[in-house]
Amino acid sequence: MITNLEQVLATNVKGMKRSAIRELLKLIENPNIISFAGGLPSPDTFPVTELKDIINDVMDNEAHIALQYGSTEGDNLLRTMLVNRYRKQGVDVSLENVIITTASQQGLDLITKIFVDRGDYIIVGLPSYLGGLSAFNSYGANLIGIPMDDEGEDPVIMEAKLKELQAMGKKPKFIYIIPDFQNPAGITMTERRRKEIIGLAHKYDVMILEDSPYRELRYEGEHQKTMYELDGTGQVMLIGTFSKIFCPGYRIGWVIGHPDVLDKIVVSKQATDLCTPAFTQRIVARYMEKGLLDKKIAQIRDMYKVKQQNMLKLLDEHMPEGFTWTHPEGGLFLMVKGPEHINTTELLKTAITEEQVAYVAGGSFFCDGTGKNTMRLNFSYETLAKNEEGIKRLGRFLKKNV
User: Fold this and answer.
1) Which end of the chain has the smaller Cβ count within 10 Å, N or C?
2) What CATH number should be reported for the domain holding residue 210?
């Protein structure tokens, strides 16, 4: 081994950090620990039986496609199925607007790679998705955090930041938004707020990156149009994934955007992995073609709605005074906020050892170092019984230690 590895590492690598969530998952492999930490779908939602039949069919009839290299843009059948799906939802999209990625995380990485130089600015929410923040940090971006209210990011504060950057002769490369059941906060951005943010993007000539992994997992409230649809000019890039509505193990996502943007993503992806695996793409395409995805999403909604309502009820019953939490209309998460003086990072290991319950400390989601008194809870993975026992443990722990 060389004498000084740090001396030869790239500048971008030095800015990378391990995911707080991925590292935490290592600590909670003990089956006695109840975990609200991961963003994991319930294994009960995986379509095992249907997939066995489809996989056999693909191997019998399409092995020459599924086992071969594919195009960088993605399997045309899968792209066509996605186009048809979005069109049914009222979104004006065609094949040239869609590229398949190796899960949505690759989309975040590739988009950052083609837009961001070290020192460039990106506008994000306070809080925001840790995977997005990690991708942006890895390319040396400066993150500008915008506080959120019940409707999403505050447009008044956002415009003030845009004006401030403009006065410095700077323009953010894009505004990163998770408008539907935001991770980690669980907040859904109203259509009015979406239009306000789009208006600011047009006014200040800034792209928007819309990350929408949970959009189809709505349990209450009114359906909202995508920012991509509301914009209609190609200034919004939309990221989606099958991880939460099908199987995360397949690692398939997509980016929808203007053809000029997708052309740059294709070039960048060719230098990264050439193509997303043709095998998993073709299986998902055949699964959709059989009309199974809508049935599966309906089953997932029914299951998670019960878990969402149950967790909200449990929080009301067991959390101590001084704690509040968001009420998500869908998705997988909610965020708990405690008194200003507490630090959920410092409390976490004690919660694991004393009560065998885990959460994600909220500070990881705040790019400005705030949010130390918050935590993210996932309600989709554990069973109803474990959710109940876990919230009891968490409430008991907080009453004793806060």
Assistant:
1) N
2) 3.40.640.10
